[in-house]
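SAMPLE LOG
Freezer: B-3
Tube label: C17
Construct: single chain, 407 aa
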Amino acid sequence: MRVLHVGKYFPPFAGGMEYFLADLARAQASMGLDVAVLVHDERRGGRGALPVRGEPVAVYRAPSHGRLLYAPVSPAFPAWLARAIRQFRPDLLHLHLPNTSAFAALALPAARRLPWVVHWHSDVVASLIDRRLSLAYRLYRPLEQRLLAHSRAVIATSAPYLDSSTALAPWTERCVAIPLGLDPARIPKPDATALAQAETLWGSSGARVLAVGRLTYYKGHEVLIRAAAERTDTRVLIVGTGDLAQRLAALARTLGLEHRVGFTGYLPETLLNALLATCDLLCLPSIERTEAFGLVQLEAMRFGKPVLVSDIAGSGTGWVVRRAGNGLLARPSDPGSLAQGLNALLGDPAQRQRLGDAGRRALEREFGIRPVAERITDVYRGMFDPISADRVSKTDDDLGHAHSESR
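STRUCTURE (predicted):
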């Protein structure tokens, strides 16, 4: 089977959707599938790049020219999709959404002749924070629905997200919920040099709370900063870049936390892994359903770290914690609730150890990339074989993901 994935970006671009795509593509290649990926070149104004000969996954990088409303701007993407189909000759397209460039498949006869799987990473949420998205979605939705109508299967990342998605509601009969997965082998134990650098970033004072993610409107970092103000013995490190960097730093200064809340900006994977290995807990304080899953939770599982996560209605963030039993939940946008969670975890080392161990086991059992890749490959087979499709549905029911009953 020859599979062409169509996504936004690919590592070394850092992001949960990107790391999952890379882990999935490589796992599928190791299972015997022929796999290629078409994404955008993360270098603004770059000329794009063709696959490197000899790599297990062929990666096409279409040129792009920055982003508009969080979406890559790539006029050449349709031509690159046609090229990838012509050269790679896939049996199916696996489209990762949201991604405006994926709409190019609607206009290309070569793409329309192929069966499609749509991987639904997130709705385009009508944000109360960034209202530009509500206006843009009026243009986006008709194309989104046409894409879904043409698909043969739709993969959502959790049953709660599937059940709460109005965009997916007309297509539930072709939907299945399969969680994101992570390849632990991609995240090695940090070496002594990286650990020493991490210790320098942490400093010598207090408990250690780590947050990882883009500094953008739905991540809720301001809630974590306000919660940190209620603790005098805690060091918070926020890893990531984004449009809110200056505003968040100003908030920390206003609250007198500039020495206890640090902003690292972008970090190489080796140092980020060292911070994960040396933190007391990971905090995911997101506040909107745009945060559909939170792959960083799986990275915390890799190091046996407990998590404190916002329980966003209709999102998979809280579902992961309930499923894995690896942390505590807090009310979104509530610094007091987040502070209570910090107090409960940081004041109880035995509980942190117990939750961290549960997360490690959950990664082996359910959230590792191999079992996830096997379930997704079963979805592919089900598109051509009704017996395989029935087996996928039954497996999904057994795992408690079936959306039909939960509705």
